[in-house]
Amino acid sequence: MKKSIVLLLVVSLFLISAAVSDSIKSNNMNGMLDNHKMTQVGFIVSDIEKSATTWAEFLGVDVPDAVIAEGHHMNPTTYRGKPSDAKAKLAFFQLENITIELIEPLGENSTWKEFLDGEGEKVHHIAFEVNEMDETVKKFKKFDIPMIQHGGWDGGEYGYMDGTEKLGVIVELLQHYNR
Amino acid sequence: MKKSIVLLLVVSLFLISAAVSDSIKSNNMNGMLDNHKMTQVGFIVSDIEKSATTWAEFLGVDVPDAVIAEGHHMNPTTYRGKPSDAKAKLAFFQLENITIELIEPLGENSTWKEFLDGEGEKVHHIAFEVNEMDETVKKFKKFDIPMIQHGGWDGGEYGYMDGTEKLGVIVELLQHYNR
Q1: Cα nearest neighbour of A116 on chain B
Q2: Does B44 touch chain A if contact means CB atoms closer than 8 Å?
């Protein structure tokens, strides 16, 4: 009887430790992210019609229509912690494995305008899809990558995380609802 | 008899024009490139061990070994048209759909060192695989995107094309032999 209890204890401890180790592994396996699929490379441009035309010719595709991104009532835009009425013109090129996003800032108080003024027309961010924006933003902050800008659209929200110092690039987090 | 010859001519012309149109389409459908698969986003860093450690923690993966890229006898390195003995330390992170490449310049006379001095630790290039380096380089030149640096390794060659002005980023062309 004693023997079987000890055996049961040993087996239970083994199973519990295996489960805990699996859980740690699964939490850490993508680091700060939920997956390792880069969904976008985003470029800041000063004249989206001009840049979209050049990229379209470069890629041999039709010039995409530019769309205007503005604040959304569900997730009003904040820039460095303060409300912002910044907008941007966006154009997208869907490549085989990733999307190229062109962004022309409209107005002040955005990472877009700040980047155009400070850096010029260059790669602004790489993007990843996340499951839980708030949780991911917390993880990033612990990793010394603070949020610069947050906002939303019909069906989702975004957060620009300032990885400039640590990674050499801004990381955009995208959460699509109901996916 | 006359009628059937005319009919034959009309059908032939139709088939020829369809073939020509297909060929034009297939030549242009990827623009300056052979495909629309972005294979790399390349970052210039000043200390590859430090950056590789940070990226590894960020992604939740092991720190990759850095490898040294140097000139290859088959494709001696040229930088802005002149021979160069530039080297670099490289580290790679294979994501689900794309590779992140970290590059620490060693020595002078390279786009890597020039970029680190002028721009700092940022996104340096996006890369695409090509079928015929020389043909693609010609197309890029006609599109006002000149080559900055060219070199090779066992099994392939690369060309850095200066898309900074037109696209906001350097485009690296990679040709793997025997693929």
Answers
A1: B168
A2: yes
